[in-house]
Amino acid sequence: MENKQKVINSIDPNGVGESGKLFGLPFSADQADIVLLPIPWEVTVSYGAGTMDGSQAILEASSQIDLFVREIPNAWQLGVHMLPISEEIAAENIKYRDLASQYISLLEEGVQTENALEMKVIPQTINEVCEKLNIYIKNQVEEQLNKGKIVGVIGGDHSTPLGLIRALNDRFEDFGILQIDAHADLRRAYQGFIYSHASIMQNALKCQNVSKLVQVGVRDCCEQEAQMISASNGRITTFFDDEIKEAQYLGNQWGKLCKQIIDQLPEHVYISFDIDGLDPRFCPNTGTPVPGGLDFQEAAYLIKTLVKSGRKIIGFDLSEVAPGNGDWDGNVGARMLYHMSNWTGVSQGLLRSR
């Protein structure tokens, strides 16, 4: 097999990207420093669907990205590879998404648990199959970590990275999560589903080595979630979108606010990026869009500033990209993925920034 340097020497970074290759670059999983696990899964989505196609949309759009990054010379040489999208997982998703949809419809019709057998059987079935997926993802992640790779998960809905977070929990004694999201995702078994996309951070916090959760851009939050944040004794710090905007209206610059956000995080940081943390003009087809949110460059600056603070990104996910009928959502997702990958490389000493 060709070594990585030989592949780098064969690439013209100013040329046309290879179709079907992430960012148009021909790095194999063995040659790449970052390996991405695509998960076409949205079984528990509670509003709009389509995120199961997110990783494919990102892959297709990624070859159109210009590779030059002003602050990171030779960023493209890092080597990022997306593993094949599993047809088996996609088929399982369709099967159990239909079942979950039946259950959600019953809930919305006001059917009580004690009045329908389905109300007991369906959540149990969905919970079991979701936990099976979590175990599969954790095993896949551990295989890559054992090879010395940095691992990211590309959803699918926001439930998909739990296996990755669990794997990192086994390897790091202390790490924080930076969550960029429109939603707090702290619900307890939302709609009866333990591993709901709306419960990902509730589940992540069950990992004892996650010492801190810092949420940015949240603008949809239920009372139960607000109470959990307040009762967390500082383990959860939430920078609500309206508070961010109000601070900016009063003259606080984004750079200053980013410092306040980053100061809450420990040395090792996992980034969980739900694309709906951005303003919906960047992700109009995402499953649960909410008015408000971060500008693309605001989110990009936050990640860059996190790395320049000396913190190390140990893994990441990008979720809830839904392509709809066009290319825009995949385009935005691909560009944010390139940005996160590059700055992860800088944080790990694999790339140098100016």
Share of residues in helices: 25-40%
The span between the termini is: 33 Å
The gyration radius over C-alpha positions equals: 20 Å
CATH topology: Arginase, Chain A
Count helical runs: 11
- How many E-type strands? 8
How are strands sequenced across the largest beta sheet? 2-1-3-8-7-4-5-6
CATH hierarchy, class? Alpha Beta
The main β sheet shows up as: 8 strands, parallel
Give the CATH architecture: 3-Layer(aba) Sandwich
Overall form: globular
Question: What is the strand content?
Answer: 5-15%
Q: H/E order of the elements?
A: HEHEHHEHEHEHEHHEHEH
CATH superfamily: Ureohydrolase domain
Which whole number gives the mean pLDDT?
A: 94
Poorly predicted regions: none
Count the domains: 1
Structural class by sheet pairing and helices: alpha/beta
